[in-house]
Specification:
Elements: H1 3-29, H2 32-48, H3 58-86, H4 102-111, H5 115-126, H6 131-138, H7 142-162, H8 165-178
Helix pairs in contact: 1-2, 1-3, 2-3, 5-6, 5-7, 6-7
Length: about 180
Amino acid sequence: MEPGRAVADLELFLADRGDDLLRTAVLLTGSKEAGEDLLQAALERLLGRWHTIEGDPEGYLRRTLYHLAADRWRQQSAWRRQLRLLRPGLGDAADPFAEVEVRDSLVRLLLQLPPRQRAVIVARYWEQLSEAESARILGCSVGTVKSAAARGLRRLRELSESHRPQDAAERVPAREQTT
């Protein structure tokens, strides 16, 4: 394929799917800036293999996004462990934005999940891919997608309940008063 044609095809593809891909990247990274960087890195890889991809390039690009995000999570985790050794208590600072919107809360909860669970939750419930599509894009079995989704959802419930201790405490006395 000639280079000018490849660029034109890529531009059409991004005009059609770019917003959805950026949204996925933002959810995987937790911020718009990091999501843009992630998408750009994935697009660089896509462009390098553009001539070998047959059919819809979205699957390749999504898989690259998930893999690059997992690589970044591993790097950040290793860096945080090293930083904690140098400065204990640095990572324990309270979040200065206690009141955030539901979407921001969800992203923060997603960031607490292990990389595989986060990727599966984003693919299955944000991107609304089927179990088979998620498995194909993530490079794992359908059973792995099912178990990672179940564990991820359970963990999200636990995390969301632990972020609302006052709500639970307020509900208990109300039940006691009515019985």
